[in-house]
Amino acid sequence: MSTYIFLASSAYSGSTLLSYLLGAHPDIATVSAASGGRRQSRIDEYRCSCGRLLNECPFWMEVRERMVARGHADFELGHFRLGFDQAPGSRRERMRTGSLRWNRLETARDLILDRLTERGATMAAVGRRNADFAAVVMAVSGGSVYVDASKERMRIRHLRRFLPMPLKVIHLVRDVRGVATSALHHGSSAAGGADAAARNWAATNRTILRHLDDLPPEDHMTVWYEQLCSETEATMSNLYAFCGVDRSRAADPLLADAEQHLIGNRRRLSAWSEITLDERWRSELSPGQQARILGLGSSVQRELYPQERALTR
Q1: Which of 30, 147, 158 shows the shortest CA–CA distance to 85?
Q2: Residue 252 — φ and ψ, nearest 5°?
Q3: How far apart are CA 170 and CA 243, in angstroms?
Q4: pLDDT value at position 269?
Q5: pLDDT at 270 over 80
Q6: Would you say the C-alpha torsion 51, 57, 62, 63 has a positive or negative sign?
Q7: Of 16, 2, 22, 14, nearest to 251 (Cα)?
Q8: Alpha-helical segments (H) within the chain
Q9: CA-based nearest residue to 51, from 259, 264, 255
Q10: Which residues, 6+ apart, have CB-to-CB distance to 62 below 8 Å?
Q11: What value does the mean pLDDT take over residues 138-160?
């Protein structure tokens, strides 16, 4: 049976890199971040990681054709409509599908809205659409495991409830100071800069952690970005076992000839010739900035790095 694996992480945590490494295995199919629609307004110039325009890439043309054949006539490459959050950022949508910070409160909300409104049927339809998309990508790629790296904070909960296929979760985490520094390098200063990135990191990982509590231990795995970069071979070996694929079939991702078709982060457009640990925060953030950022994410950072893995190196 095919397996759906959700790669849960905050922004700037290395999900594009991990998607690339996983996608180099012949039995793993991924397009990285599938649920977003930010490319919609620039679809005519948006490129697949293979280098072709998305609208001209044979892989994506076949995916679109197969999705339409499965009954999704509204499927378009600018926006796959795979997200459960239909109006990101709105107060109404937060009450309908967003985080309420407590699992029990969200369960009560879901039971009431699913019973009294069309929400349950709508969410189930999105779940089936995600399952169809995963099946199509696996069919076109030739894999038996699908990895979804979408950045939807409540996605674990919604996939667990509405995805009609087995779900497993990889939780990818990175030191909050590294995330904040990467956010600044990507031009996030206008949106609150490092502080906003740290708050988002904390909120996202806090939500992921409490939803992982509802999954059996064998169905989720934590991967640290720092470990992925410094101990790549051992980390990938553990990931292959978690995904249920044969490690011996894995090619060296830095030497693999297989073409990939990733979307999302612009880093997808540059091939990795080597994997290096990005810890620019050590030299670019002052001690005061580091302390402030750690303060914004302190409780979550301590939980994710119980031996102060990133704090003492």
Answers
A1: 158
A2: -65, 115
A3: 9
A4: 66
A5: no
A6: positive
A7: 22
A8: 15-23, 58-69, 91-97, 103-116, 119-141, 155-162, 176-185, 193-212, 225-230, 232-243, 281-284, 287-296, 298-304
A9: 259
A10: 140
A11: 95
User: Do residues 17 and 167 lie in contact, with contact meaning Cβ atoms separated by under 8 Å?
Assistant: no
DSSP secondary structure letters along 172-231:
EE--HHHHHHHHHHTTGGGGTHHHHHHHHHHHHHHHHHHHHTTS-GGGEEEEEHHHHHHS
DSSP 142-172: T-SEEEE----TTHHHHHHHH-SS-EEEEEE
Q: What type of residue sits at position 60?
A: W
Query: Would you put residue 51 in left (φ > 0), alpha (ψ -120 to 50) or beta?
Result: left
pLDDT of residue 272: 75
Determine the 3-state secondary structure of 132 from DSSP: helix
Question: By three-state DSSP, how is residue 66 classified?
Answer: helix
Average pLDDT estimate for 53-79? 96
Which of 258, 21, 270, 11 is closest to 142 using CA atoms?
258
d(CA 207, CA 7): 14
Are 209 and 303 within 8 A, CB to CB? yes
CA dihedral 181, 204, 16, 122 (to 10 degrees): -150
- Nearest in space to 156 (alpha carbons), one of 120, 81, 208: 208
